[in-house]
Amino acid sequence: MKMSKLFLPTLREVPAEAVVVSHRLLLRAGMIRKLSNGLFTYLPLGLRSFRKVENIIREEMNAIGSLEFKPSVVVPGDIWRESGRWETMGPGMLRIKNRVDQELVVSPTAEEAFTSLLRSEVSSYKQLPLSVYQINTKYRDEIRPRYGLMRAREFTMKDAYSFHTNDESLDETYQDMGRAYRKIFKRCGLSVIPVRADSGAMGGTGSEEFMVESEVGDNNLILCPKCGYAANDEKAACAPDPVAEGPGSAKTDKAYAPIETPNVKTIDELCAFLKTSPKAFIKTLIYRAVNSELDLRSAPGCASLKRVVPENSPAYYPESFFAVCVRGELDVNETKLAATLKASEVELAGESVVERLTGAPVGFAGPVGFATAPVVADLSVMAMHDSVTGALKTDLHFEHVEPGRDFTPWLVADVRTVRAGDHCANCGAEYYAKKGNELGHIFKLGYKYTKSMNMLYLDENGKQQYPTMGCYGIGVDRTLASIIEEHNDENGIVWPMSVAPFHVSIVPIKYEGAMKETADALYSALSSSGVEVLLDDREERPGVKFKDSDLIGVPVRIVVGDKNLPNVEVKLRSAKDAELVPATEAAAKVAAIVRDALARIV
Amino acid sequence: MKMSKLFLPTLREVPAEAVVVSHRLLLRAGMIRKLSNGLFTYLPLGLRSFRKVENIIREEMNAIGSLEFKPSVVVPGDIWRESGRWETMGPGMLRIKNRVDQELVVSPTAEEAFTSLLRSEVSSYKQLPLSVYQINTKYRDEIRPRYGLMRAREFTMKDAYSFHTNDESLDETYQDMGRAYRKIFKRCGLSVIPVRADSGAMGGTGSEEFMVESEVGDNNLILCPKCGYAANDEKAACAPDPVAEGPGSAKTDKAYAPIETPNVKTIDELCAFLKTSPKAFIKTLIYRAVNSELDLRSAPGCASLKRVVPENSPAYYPESFFAVCVRGELDVNETKLAATLKASEVELAGESVVERLTGAPVGFAGPVGFATAPVVADLSVMAMHDSVTGALKTDLHFEHVEPGRDFTPWLVADVRTVRAGDHCANCGAEYYAKKGNELGHIFKLGYKYTKSMNMLYLDENGKQQYPTMGCYGIGVDRTLASIIEEHNDENGIVWPMSVAPFHVSIVPIKYEGAMKETADALYSALSSSGVEVLLDDREERPGVKFKDSDLIGVPVRIVVGDKNLPNVEVKLRSAKDAELVPATEAAAKVAAIVRDALARIV
């Protein structure tokens, strides 16, 4: 393509709104523009790379026999009611009522759409396993869209779903997907960190996230340098670490006793006052849980809670409260807590709720004698001794508390945030941490959707069965942005050949005379051998052309200048130096470079 | 592809919901399924043909230098407020408020999105002309979605927009688009009727619709057999046809006079009663207009109407009423009327409004002495003589009415529906009519969006100017459905090679032994020469395989049977008879058939 025919508004200035490098370079290289908060338009150059990423994903999905469908983007609300997610998806799902009062959803994901479609089509075990996917527009109403394509409201997702008669079959497709994902990211030139919550054995818990390291990542990754354990801190576990010495380490025979703590506000002040350490303090936080699916019918303080019993999905409590205990220096991990409570969301309860439930102002909650809500204790708490905790009265604490002796939690669970420095649950080595963004996720869903949406097939014995199901997603835009995050320098993007918008740029110093002739000849020779060429035919200074070529990151640049003719300069974007090549040999040489680079990463 | 790997749920039964042949065959051939009213999922086979149509459109857009973008599907409402269409788009536009109370729209079209994007990017005449397009999801909230893909709620549209410094430049792109559209439809194997409201000269009114004939078409086409005039009846004009003889044909000197017409309900009864003909009767209908942009400030009965004056777009009346007169045997065309009234919509007024404005029950409206709303008279009325009309009182009419003498309309315009049998406005020949569906539309927009949305560039003299604009749409799904409407027989679809989901199907009578070997060899030989082959490797009876192959309409079929080996049977889907060909030559022969067919229509 000739550059004069391309709409390529490159920017010299760094746009103020863009804080991450991919966002900056996508804007500066004229690849995207913002239409509104979290809504972007791909310009022609950006779309070329976007389509290449999309096609790599498509090829690898097709290679493992997954079949491409195209459901609508807008889908009826009733299928979300069937699955039970109409209630649990929260405000991130964009809901609409149309002119005939039908509830519609702009798809955030498509378990419902595919289950609804395939339950009418699949009737026999002979049709299974079945693996299907789409690459299509999704919308999630992010409260704080930011980082450009990294966290937009509208985005393109490859989402695949598979249906099986048994776990072995599901695991086979799950493993195929895992391999396909590794290949996709490799072909895109990306270093991904596959993250599993379990020890890394094949076929474990059935969930694997594909992360890229990012300073502004949404995810905190916990990594073991020794055994390779890698987990999102939303799921990471660690080896038990009872307090080894000092306050809180030794069992006491003393009965727990109240102690006046006037004007003591913080844990630090309290520890100074009592000459103890945060490790001996049981921190107790009151949490509000949304849509908990736990059975709280006989739990403390829950008798009068509203409980909803839908027809096809589990009963849930729209709102419930819990006292959550963790060792003083640790943090409660809200994602782990939400999973433990089977809730769609958890948040710290407001002051008035805390006062109502604890009978005291904020700061004096504690598990001893607490009966107005279920007490959830982290594993760390149950290993504590001779501990201090709030006494449910203003300016009063208890000391010499022995968990298990002086209180029995309603539930003991792992709800703490694991951090760098904690010890590996698997091998005991010390964890380190990274921030990361999730590009893909493969997940064994099981029967959640097929049961709630009543998808049935007849097995070999003519008996009705629910298929088991997997789901597998990749964010296309986010993958594109991550490639730029990994491949750039101070001058701009450095595309891997596989996803570069053009393979080669030809820059004549001036587009006239012999330089024009040579540039045109190279352009047509390369184009006809299947190489994607951008010819800079603009009337701009050479410096501007070089800067743009570097900024947009075309992998190979051919400079055609009077001074060098009959030679031309061939330079790789990733290399420092150029090479002089006879113009007559340049097309063949460059075509070989492109071909080799493309072959290397397939 | 092997059929056992493809998800291809063909149906023997004709689905009851499907009344048009494309809808029936899309369902029966396992190409689409309905998710909800007007919302469809493409299955793998359907998606293959869909993508081919999409790519033909893409290639022809690229060939005329239009640049592909990808805006978001969900767009902010504020750009629709800027253009003024937030108010005028009506309930067909899907509007949403998101969690932070931002107004959003699921794009029904994208003039606003592109104008908004490009006004920030285009600053100089040097950047113009600029032609851009997308192929993307659209949503229009059809009240009665039907006919499958012909009138769905969600659909894919290719929509292009062009921006120019002058009319000649706009006309050049407009003509390029017209040629590209003809080529696109030709490549898709479609016979389209290009429909213009003007005489057909180049560069006329700047609007051309590309129609396909359809029994259930949305559009009534008016066609001239002599000069080729073709117009949508929403726009068609005809030659003047004053009443030639009999009642209503001769001027009268009598003054108009009231005449009692007790118990006369219909025009026919009235004509019998007065011994006259509908051609002498002035039919007067009270219409309600929505968002009329006419200036009604000094029009009869309009003084107290609410008038809205937005900042960047024309003033309009949310609601106004008109008395519309037309010769008794003719019909008012509501689209022409809406255009005349510059209204987004018109509808017959309710009974209570009619009574309020005419001072009588429904049935006695007339233009004589009517002062409570503006009177709009069709051209036909002004050529009438000695006519009859309602007298604004129960059971009373006027006779001997002379238009122009006894009443003067506020506006005279062409608002009647033109019909087969009317005479060509261009050459006087008699029109015939067809029903059609619009597949594409090219349109010179002018300054509507660039002015209301304040898109400006600097011209050669450094002066700020608004660019003039064109828009150009093609419905992708509707094009696909129309191909099936035109190419089918009693056994199923008969795909043109260019858009067939597969070029060739190989049907072994049994997939075993020598038949399997031959089928596999043909499959791999054809596949490796770039032919798209579907191999029916299922354990089904030959009859089932033949029926499916015909139903899904693959253009060439190779049957491999024991009886014929070492020959195989090659049959075109469109032909009656098969031909025996040595298996060793079949691949080359069939590849040539495919290649020739593809070359013929490019």
Helix content of chain A: 25-40%
- What percent of residues of chain A are in strands? 25-35%
Distance between the termini of chain A: 25 Å
Mean pLDDT of chain A: 93
Number of helices of chain A: 15
The low-pLDDT segments of chain A are: 198-204
Query: Largest sheet of chain A, described in full?
Result: 9 strands, mixed
How many domains is the backbone of chain A divided into?
A: 3
Radius of gyration of chain A, rounded? 30 Å
Q: Identify the CATH architecture of the largest domain in chain A.
A: 2-Layer Sandwich
Largest interface: A-B, 54 and 53 residues
Query: Oligomeric state of the chains?
Result: homodimer
Tag the structure with descriptive keywords.
homodimer; 602 residues; alpha+beta; BirA Bifunctional Protein, domain 2; Rossmann fold; 15 helices; 31 strands
How would you characterize this protein structure?
2 copies of one chain form a homodimer. The first copy, chain A, has 3 domains: 17-71 and 109-215 and 436-483, 2-Layer Sandwich (BirA Bifunctional Protein, domain 2), CATH 3.30.930.10; 257-413, YbaK protein (Alpha-Beta Complex), CATH 3.90.960.10; 502-601, Anticodon-binding domain (Rossmann fold, 3-Layer(aba) Sandwich). With 602 residues, chain A is of the alpha+beta class. In chain A, strands 3, 7, 8, 9, 10, 11, 12, 21 and 24 form a 9-stranded mixed beta sheet that branches. A 5-stranded mixed beta sheet of chain A has the order 16-14-15-17-20, with helices on both faces. The interface between A and B is large, with 54 and 53 residues.
